[in-house]
Amino acid sequence: MQQQAADITSFPHLFLSGPASSGKTSAALLRLQQILSSDARSTTLVLVPQQSLAKPYQDYLRSSNLPSSQQISIQTMSSIVRRMIALFWPLIASRQVFRHPFEPPRFLTLETAQYFMAQVADPVIDRGHFATITLTRNRLFSQLLDNLNKSAIVGFPHTELARRLKSAWTGDQSQLVVYDDVQLAVNAFREFCLEHNLLDFSLQVELFREIVWPNETFQKYFQNQYQHLIYDNAEEDPPYVHDIVGSWIKSLQTSLIIMDEGGGLRSFLGADPASAAKFALQADTCLHFEQNYVSSPPVVALLGTMQSPHAQKLPHSTISQALIIASKQPRFFPELLQSVSQEIADLVLNGTPAEEIAVLSPFLSDPLVFELSRRLSKAGIPTQSLRPSLALKSNPHIQTVLTLSSLAHPDWQQPPDLYQTLSALSTAIPRLDPLRARLILEQATFNQDVTLLPSLVSLPKELTERIPSDILQQVEKLRLWLDSVDQNEPLDYFISRLFSELLTQPGFGFSENQEAGEHTARLIQSYQKFKRPLAADKGADASYLGREYYKALSQGLLSALFVPEEEVVGEPGVLIAPVMTFLMQNRAVQHQFWLNLGSKGWYERLEQPLTHPYVLNRQWQPGKKWTTDDEIALGRFNLERTLIGLLRRCSGQVHLCTSDYGESGVEEKGLLLTWAQNLFRSALREQEND
Amino acid sequence: MTDILPAGFVFHQSNLQAFKTCRFSFLLRYIRKFPWPAPLAARTSTFEQDLVAGSTLHSLIHQYFLGIDPELLVSSAANFPDARVSVWFNNFLASQYATLTSNQFPEHSLQITLDGSLLLAKFDLLTLNVDTIQICDWKSSRVIPKRQFLQDRIQTMVYSLVAARAHPLPSRSITMHYWEAGFPDQPIIFTIEAAQLQRYEETLTDLITCIRSLPVEQFERTTDRKKCSYCEYQSYCARSGSTKDEESFNNWFEIGLSELQGQTKEQTEF
Fold this sequence. Notes:
The structure holds two protein chains of two kinds.
Chain A: H1 2-6, E1 13-18, H2 24-38, E2 44-47, H3 55-64, E3 72-75, H4 77-87, H5 89-94, E4 106-107, H6 110-126, H7 137-154, H8 161-168, H9 174-196, E5 198-199, H10 201-212, H11 216-225, E6 228-231, H12 239-248, E7 254-260, H13 273-277, H14 279-282, E8 285-288, H15 297-307, H16 316-322, E9 323-325, H17 333-349, E10 357-361, H18 366-378, E11 383-388, H19 396-408, H20 418-428, H21 434-441, E12 445-446, E13 449-450, H22 461-464, H23 469-483, H24 491-503, H25 514-534, H26 542-554, E14 566-569, E15 574-578, H27 579-585, E16 589-594, H28 628-647, E17 650-656, H29 671-689
Parallel strand pairs in A: 1-7, 1-8, 2-3, 2-6, 4-5, 6-7, 9-17, 10-15, 10-16, 11-15, 16-17
Antiparallel strand pairs in A: 11-14, 12-13
Helix pairs in contact in A: 4-10, 6-7, 6-9, 7-10, 8-9, 15-16, 17-18, 19-20, 20-21, 24-25
Chain B: E1 10-12, H1 13-21, H2 23-31, H3 47-66, H4 70-78, H5 83-94, E2 104-114, E3 117-128, E4 132-139, H6 147-151, H7 154-166, E5 173-180, E6 188-192, H8 194-213, H9 246-260, E7 268-269
Parallel strand pairs in B: 1-3, 4-5
Antiparallel strand pairs in B: 2-3, 3-4, 5-6
């Protein structure tokens, strides 16, 4: 079957579907090899919905050492959209969509879009709109942007948002006013973007669909770029990507569209498997893979009963080979972590490679990752955690640089508090312990705020006697350096000097500290991204930009409320990851440890009172109401899809890990726990009856 | 051979030039991919502005060769905040290089295998004629570079060799045109004959073989501290404040420009 899928001559336009672990991507790699060997001068676009799904193709590219590897381009549609808008910007300018069409576009990231949304929505909120909503402003802004994005990727005018949301609402009538407020804010934001040449993601998609893609000059260019297409995990992309690819396929020499049947994991982000399934109608040939190449026989048996309600019940012995439960359930969560660590250590001791073990939970808290990593590391087992990036300001090195920045810029009028300064001072000067740092800072603290560091001469004698003089000299050196700062120096220049002239000098906290360098470089990069769309504004001088950046970070606008990028921490080893992140890695492991079984996070969607991913969807029937029954059905569907997805990526066993009291300290009884309990109870009953 | 390079490593003019300038900076930037705060204040105040202006000129010329109406491009250039861009683009339109033909490939990438290693070049404009291959490289320097400086650059060697080997026709000669937008009437042109190409191939092969053979400890810091003056790792090596040097400026400017234009990235973008 895989050879068949690789045959570009017999099947130039192929649609390949099947569940996870059925060898679809392996077939795509074989096909890629065939394209390269038969047509070395052509270019193949490998299109994937997100970076993690590109890994097999990147690995192939790196390991094959092909002379023509330049002829494979691995991209997401969002990256194509952004690059093509930049390249064909004069075409957009000619359509006079923007107030200043010939000025350069100012691309917004998710974070800078939130910053500008705040500029627009803050006055709206202050006028009394959104009064019944209790969300933090940042979550409110991100949901407003999410609405705009949904209108663009699904393909309806953003001016219809309120009408669509209202038409599906069945609850309290006061919510209808909230949807009107949503419409008001998104309309104002779109106007603001058109006025200032700002391009958030939604506007990028709209401009690409409506102006760039249909343009003849663009089409001539784009058709020349690629001759072959491999589009993997099409079900994880929104319908606008399917529309674009669908209108393009026939002008390609060959195309392979791959769809994972159990996918659509990113539905809350607009993924639309039903829309992707329509590619089957355009293909010359459709192939379906069914074989599961990964899961162990007991897991395959379990999958069989889950997918077929009329299948025979499984004996207890089979279930307990697929799903492992502890003989004695621990009472508290820390005890559970201890037993999980012990189980993992035993597995590794008995020859299981650490990379073949994954610890999965719907959400990953810092204490969970820390405690598990600590315990496993104590046993000599490496761990790797994979989760959304932490907010910049929660990193101690970055926090230190930011605190010193605010001390050096009194005109920002955002002085750090005592505790923040205390921590920064102890990090910048490691030999200064927090207690002594506090004694020094108390000399210059007013209302818990620190506006400057006290000078050495101003410190009382009884204090200077308690602190070694070389440390005092370091504090004085830091003070003098901060005092000498030019208030009009760009923040990135300031940080780069603070780093190299002071913090990396012998005796200071970043000296010979590689991690501190990486974190500071990340902060500089974040500021540079932030200032790019703002810098063209009149009056946006260095001082203004620095102040706005600091304010946005402090308010959490630039934090990782919803950052799609994931941060990999640690070397390859036992993987600790959120369930959804693991599934989107599309890799299998021998042992999966499922934590927080009682949590509703396994299936419930996030609370989003200002938007609705299932109503703002192309498959939603206009006029239909979203009811409690829909919500319950969605939860069950999500859980089933997640469980099947995990089991298909398990080549050994699943370890169900639960304690009387969950991570949050309360007894939780979610659907997953109930499912597992029922499964075992019913099997035991059958066994007893037999 | 100790080869510490990852599988599929692609050599290009920027990383080879970086190796020639300082082996340690090559190790940090291209093998370890080590982020480190660049010494922004050590760079001239116009460094960033020049980078953006240079990159915008490249985009405008690229758009011109894609067939976008030149009038739209002139309006775009005129609205760009840095007035030099408009002047440069008008200089380009008035130059011999603005003649459109059907055998031109703007922003075109080619990759060859050289003694088992991958070597990439991304040309600003490649024109394939029956008897010649013309390579054009657009520059936006404040001061026109010396001919000798360009002749000895790794870029001249890599571009000519990749173009010649990717389009092998024995009778074709290669011309490499460095066109300075601020000095439109003074293009610096090199005609590269077969014997010269052979020497380039040997030089580049030797250089790549050397990189592949070095153990990690032999990726040493340069002994010429002037080369550190614009290097982003100068504080990592405790070499901040080195005397400013034109060559160091050019090297880091070229790296910045190529990265801004995505020229040296892997063929992967998300």
